[in-house]
Amino acid sequence: xxxxxxxxxxxxxxxxxxxxxxxxxxxxxxxxxxxxxxxxxxxxxxxxxxxxxxxxxxxxxxxxxxxxxxxxxxxxxxxxxxxxxxxxxxxxxxxxxxxxxxxxxxxxxxxxxxxxxxxxxxxxxxxxxxxxxxxxxxxxxxxxxxxxxxxxxxxxxxxxxxxxxxxxxxxxxxxxxxxxxxxxxxxxxxxxxxxxxxxxxxxxxxxxxxxxxxxxxxxxxxxxxxxxxxxxxxxxxxxxxxxxxxxxxxxxxxxxxxxxxxxxxxxxxxxxxxxxxxxxxxxxxxxxxxxxxxxxxxxxxxxxxxxxxxxxxxxxxxxxxxxxxxxxxxxxxxxxxxxxxxxxxxxxxxxxxxxxxxxxxxxxxxxxxxxxxxxxxxxxxxxxxxxxxxxxxxxxxxxxxxxxxxxxxxxxxxxxxxxxxxxxxxxxxxxxxxxxxxxxxxxx
Amino acid sequence: xxxxxxxxxxxxxxxxxxxxxxxxxxxxxxxxxxxxxxxxxxxxxxxxxxxxxxxxxxxxxxxxxxxxxxxxxxxxxxxxxxxxxxxxxxxxxxxxxxxxxxxxxxxxxxxxxxxxxxxxxxxxxxxxxxxxxxxxxxxxxxxxxxxxxxxxxxxxxxxxxxxxxxxxxxxxxxxxxxxxxxxxxxxxxxxxxxxxxxxxxxxxxxxxxxxxxxxxxxxxxxxxxxxxxxxxxxxxxxxxxxxxxxxxxxxxxxxxxxxxxxxxxxxxxxxxxxxxxxxxxxxxxxxxxxxxxxxxxxxxxxxxxxxxxxxxxxxxxxxxxxxxxxxxxxxxxxxxxxxxxxxxxxxxxxxxxxxxxxxxxxxxxxxxxxxxxxxxxxxxxxxxxxxxxxxxxxxxxxxxxxxxxxxxxxxxxxxxxxxxxxxxxxxxxxxxxxxxxxxxxxxxxxxxxxxxxxxxxxxxxxxxxxxxxxxxxxxxxxxxxxxxx
Lengths: 444, 485
Fold this sequence. Notes:
Chain A is an alpha/beta fold. Chain A is 36% helix and 14% strand. Chain B has helices at 17-20, 56-67, 90-96, 99-102, 114-131, 143-161, 177-184, 202-208, 231-240, 333-369, 399-408, 436-455, 457-462, 474-479; strands spanning 135-137, 167-171, 188-192, 213-219, 244-248, 268-270, 291-293, 305-309, 312-316, 385-387, 415-416, 426-428.
């Protein structure tokens, strides 16, 4: 096996030093009856060529092996990834390093993630951002736990029914054993979180609203903040499309206490849903409540600038059961990827790309409405929106995937049973006017 | 430092992204605006975020220089105990980047995702065979996330039985994630000490186990690198009171093909694909922490689960007792691809050999450095061995001083000050992918440092000397946190 360097001679010499007679005798400290009687029943090892063939075959049975036109989002977005991103992130010094516990030989990771934290705070208008979390759903669950811990006299979290359905399920999973309660804020006919319903809810430690919401509509975060303040609840906001904050007013401007987000849009491959990038940011006041790692700036013994992991006394390896969270590994390499992406697009690029996402989505909506689709909501959106298709669309949609590799919207019914025959469409900068015109023609 | 890998060379200073930024630069090729501009209401839009403005070469040079300040497994031996810093095969990266995988949208639908689903199904099967369990979930995003998932299942199991329990037994050798994960489920950790020989005594467990205790969290091999040989007896004690045994499989790299945790009384076990199954650590993730379970906990697995139906695969969520979802989609699929490629490249024999050679190398280091460093538990070890600084402390040289000096010799230091049960711990895990020559160089370096501790202790206290920066002021960093530029 090419990964195992030991020659027969090496093994002999090393065994001699250890005083053991054979490789098996190294395991004599394990009682015989605990050892397995059967070898592992898995396929024979493959050569690199055989592996390539096998993997190619598997990858080819995903439709993604072809160039497809992606008009779906729902938490995973098709954005253009410039060549320099995979090129730079595959540098083994980044990829094959551990958590930067030895800062003298980890300044690359440390400065890179420090810059990531800085750019995320810029993007979201927040004071601090952590070094990353797993995904938006788990970051949102942590934000809800913070609210419950900090508002001990209150027992509930109100979460918008238009937060990503998976995120709401994750929050439920995390909260269930704690005995606290999650209540869902219903949505209005306009496809927005029902602020009247929220106003009637009590005993709230936190209020969580996603914007743009799962239907793509931009929420009135100012109104949410006002209700949160009146109820002395923490204002938590989340998002699945990080690109939107290249254009939209950021959560900080609305006075959010905590922000949970998904950063997959920032140069990270869709990769069948993971690994993505959990973003978690807060006000300065929340700094010590936030879970996971932070990188801080400091000086070395010679007075030179350097970076270290810091505020570790919140973390599990120091605080054990009293830690702010159990998180250890985060999604560091994807945070570095996002940093590279943000540095690449810069202030000019992110604005233009975000604007084009919106422009194309508006054009797509108009084109589909002209093709016989019925608009559902009339509220401003970023790059996703809901339409009711004409009869026979379901069959047409399947054929479009099969024959033309066009993914035309996703069915909302599995997520919202009341939304029968409603589809969520998305447009990013990767689709052209011609693609949209073709889609409109096909579905007419 | 003759023949040691550590050397100095030209290394570049590099300012922050903002210092490099010049108004008007942009490093991305912008798409052509081919549709009409649609302005959003001014109340909804903000100013563009103040991101740095750079050219493409600015970005490339920035990250190239940053990368050169890092130490990775590809740079040199990285014997971090408990972290299993084995070689990360490059073919795994090629496979994960295949367009059919990397480009797959999670909502493409089962019909159009058969390749992903088949891979996940097969990987579940292989990991179940390796661990001796019936089934498992691939959804947890990291080891600690897997622990939480396992504990949530245990919590759901007792809830279903109608009587929740309040405590969980955790040995003093456990990773900090164990008590933190248990605490998230509301369990109060009951900490117990390991015995004189560094392993758990069944009597200690029996003394605290009762019918209000959900069970025990055991890392086996434990963090001293020792096999918990009483594990079956301990499991019997836990089971006799209706409890469950949680296995932390962080150290599975020592026992593949030798012990199957599912066969020796463990009820639920998490694995770290980024340790045992060779996926890169990435400077702190993303990892993947699958959780294997026996029959008792199977109904509680997270959803969706991958089900094989004749020759096709589908995602199914209809399990009434499930704990629910713990990841937005299906877990870290890209990491699963890498682990799958690794398992297929190794085969059963390759995995067994990995464990044998990992254990051989650790014992070889243990025997070679015994006498140079103090060895608190002198017995055959598994994949790692734990020394401390007792011999050097008479010269006021501590573990951290030796660790920092190792950097000058060109090695990443071992894990230091963990496990907590060993004062000044120096925990070495060489892994099976380091050659005898590299291990010998490492041993020579540690011996040379021990000599320096006698002859020039001041030098060690000031080390390292060859790195880009020297020791950093962590106290000020924590007291006056500066977390953004």
